[in-house]
Amino acid sequence: MKPLLINGEWVTSASAAENRNPSDTSDVIDLYAHAGVPETQAAIEAAVAAAPGWAETTPQERFVILNRTADELTARKQEIGTLLSREEGKTLREGILETDRAANIFRFFAGECVRQTGDLIRSVRPGIDVEVTREPLGVVGIITPWNFPIAIPSWKIAPALCHGNAVVFKPAELVPGCAWVLADILKRAGLPDGVLNLVTGKGSVVGQTMLDAPQINGITFTGSQGVGHRVAEACLKHLRKVQLEMGGKNPLVVLDDADLDQAVEVAVDGAYFATGQRCTASSRLIVTEGIFSRFVERLVDRCKTLRVGHALAEGTDVGPVASADQLQTDLKYIDIGRSQGGNLRCGGELLRRETEGYFLQPALFTDTTNDMRINTEEVFGPVAAVIRVKDYEEALWTANETDFGLCSGICTTSLKHAAHFRKNSKAGMVMVNLPTAGVDYHVPFGGTKGSSYGPREQGSYAREFFSTVKTGYVRA
Question: Which listed residue (245, 378, 457, 464) is catalytic?
Fold first, then answer.
């Protein structure tokens, strides 16, 4: 059984759960300890005790630890990528790329450790200087989802440590393996005891205990809207800082003047790769009428070529759905799409492979409208719907008519429309002739409306959440 990490010690618990491979449900990766309330409280207390000492470390000390972590992730990316693919279901290529991304995130924030700056400002009063500096929050609670088992923990843990915070880390119950490996690497990289505490287990127990703890100074959460709202309410009670990423219903607009081949590949990548289990996935394909028929026919043909199979098998384009529960959710929305008048042009059926797994042929709906549930609610699976519109103006309105605002995209050869869309799309991230899914690690990540709340993640903008500003006045 893989234990918890509390105050620098590997700690067992009274309960544990199997981590099974969605490509082969007979493959048990390992048993992982489940923390209860006492273990979670011990982890919080350990972080509280360790926070002052970590806050006093030098930029160079933090740099060394984060850089060592990056180096080991890079050296072990084949091994860790394989584990990621086994526990989450991404293809091996995607698993390795995600591990490499995690390494780059740690390497970036290693550099940020020694790039931290402040401001020295002359006061409006004579003989007085003003010094603006940043300080750690203290203890940060990190709650991560299952769809990016090592990248999302990395882009939260790395800046938290970079800016001098101690961490209580709760990964998704479905994917404890990569979280355990990351905690082990950080411990061996020289992170002091108690600075990072790993508590795997149920959200209703571990997560709730974290939310109830007044000692936690900030919580960063990625997950569903419903849980995100509960996190926000709990944080408001304690007047603590909160950062929420809560998904998307991302539009990809395809205009009449788009490069057809490029548009189809952009749509397939954004909608179906990583089994569509990305908060930035292109789930709404908004297509103008001049290119509509050609685009749909070409997209249907391309979808039929996608090879669905075991995540570790050579030649697999799309791996399994991550869990039985998520598979049932996907099938439910496919039924909803049909019942509301959508035309299931291809896919949507369960597939049998050599191993028992959660294999689903990517589904494409046509004849849909923007108010159908498959276009208003996040499915989080390989399900996309095409919406036909008259022109660019209707496409832009349709793209913006959603409660979400994480990412949007447009395929066009018109500089005029590209520029206008970038400015007027009501999303935090905008892509031109690129999939909505797929972002760089060194620039801000986040959305508008119901997708995000609080400061942006990633890049130098991460400091807005993981540190707080202090203003000091000095009379010479």
Answer: 245
Judging by beta carbons within 10 Å of its beta carbon (0-12, 13-18, 19+), is residue 210 exposed, middle or buried? buried
Q: Are residues 212 and 272 in the same domain?
A: no
At residue 421, the pLDDT reads 98
**Token pair for 351:** 């597939």
Contacts of 149 (CB under 8 A, 6+ apart): 84, 87, 88, 98, 171, 172, 175, 177, 178, 179
For the chain, the domain total comes to: 2
**What does the buried/exposed string (b/e) look like for 235-271 if buried means 16 or more CB atoms within 10 Å of the residue's CB?**
beebebbbbbbbbbbbbbbbbbebeeeebbbbbbbbb
Q: Let me know whether 266 and 194 are in one domain.
A: no
Q: How far apart are CA 106 and CA 103, in angstroms?
A: 5
Phi-psi region of 18 (alpha: psi -120 to 50; beta: other; left: phi over 0): beta
HSE-CB for 458 with a 13 A CA cutoff: 18
Q: Are strands 139-143 and 166-170 parallel, antiparallel or unpaired?
A: parallel
Q: For residue 211, what pLDDT is reported?
A: 98
Q: Does pLDDT of 476 surpass 90?
A: no
Known catalytic residue: 98? no
Kindly name the residue from 113, 178, 235, 279 that is annotated as catalytic: 279
pLDDT digits (tens, 9 = 90+) for 375-392: 999 999 999 999 999 999
Helix (H) or strand (E) holding 374: helix 373-376
| Residue among 187, 186, 180 at smallest CA distance from 16 | 180
Which runs of consecutive H residues, i.e. helices, occur in 189-224? Answer: 208-212
- Answer yes or no: 39 catalytic: no
Q: Which domain holds residue 387?
A: 250-432
Stretch 102-110: mean pLDDT: 98
What is the percentage of the chain residues whose pLDDT exceeds 70? Answer: 100
Q: Which helix (H) or strand (E) holds 342?
A: none
